[in-house]
Amino acid sequence: xxxxxxxDFRAQAQERLSKSTWDYIExxxxxxxxxxxxxxxxxxxxxxxxxxxxxxxxxxxDVSEVDTRTTIQGAEISAPICIAPSGFHCVAWPxxxxxxARAAQAAGICYITSTYASCSLEDIVSTAPSGLRWFxxxxxPDRQLNKQLIQRVxxxxxxxxxxxxxxxxxxxxxxxxxxxxxxxxxxxxxxLRAPEEKNSIPYLQVSSISKSLCWNDLSxxxxxxxxxxxxxGILTKEDAELAVKHNxxxxxxxxxxxxxxxEVPATIDAxxxxxxxxxxxxxxxxxxxxRTGNDVLKALALGAKCVFLGRPVxxxxxxxxxxxxxxxxxxxxxxxxxxxxxxxxxxxxEISRDLIQFSRL
Length: 361
Fold this sequence. Notes:
The chain is α/β, with parallel strands linked by helices.
């Protein structure tokens, strides 16, 4: 039976993976309320429980040609559908992040590589040399290690630095605790080994993420890199305004897939206030809960420049490796193209807030 939507990949991935691996990929913090809200909020507005998000299509437009291309940080992508950072892709497929990178390159979209990738940065780059890559950084207490990593990704051609801000400590992930999952003891984190220092940093401990990172530290990062800096994990207008004040180049509205603090807003609900706060001064992106082309369209209509996929990429990887990720991306791109066509949008520029209706249940 063909896999025709992202939920088909989810079902097949669950059959193929061990329980502990599946729980790691799918698990959320505590009760998993935010993880689930991320998905359902695209259908209904969870802040106003009597309302739901619906589309307002426009017809009698010439939609014989529909262009899904757009840019992020000045680089063109084939569609506003990219790959969010997630670690340990080798738990889903032997080639791990190398397969993911090849699929992203084939699809013409951006892949944000995680600090906790299970393949080396050099291998990821060499397997997909022309792909658009950003690097996600979990800030370490050792500034020199951060500097080494940033210089390394710059030399390898990564085009942006994505600093995750919502993990001063790891969320309470009950499934992983019950399963006694300890990925850092089972996987060599090759990203952190410089080629000339193979034995100097055997592991990067998940527990060593900096708890002291604050707004004033951003100037230090800006002083050591020319890469645009994107903050991942912003959910409020107050932090969005501070991001603009501190001269970063972008925000990813994210709640870490519901894996950090439970009972925070779904990302599509937080998006509007963040977009309003930045007033167009920096680009705003979104991850969390995107499962259909309509979801992509709604996110863009509410102000996102691009969406980033997390779990669905791992589902595709678990099912068919590189080709599974390609299929997931192509299904979503085709659905998005259809959504644009059926709402009368011939280009990304024609997607606007006018497409959205909050209708009463």
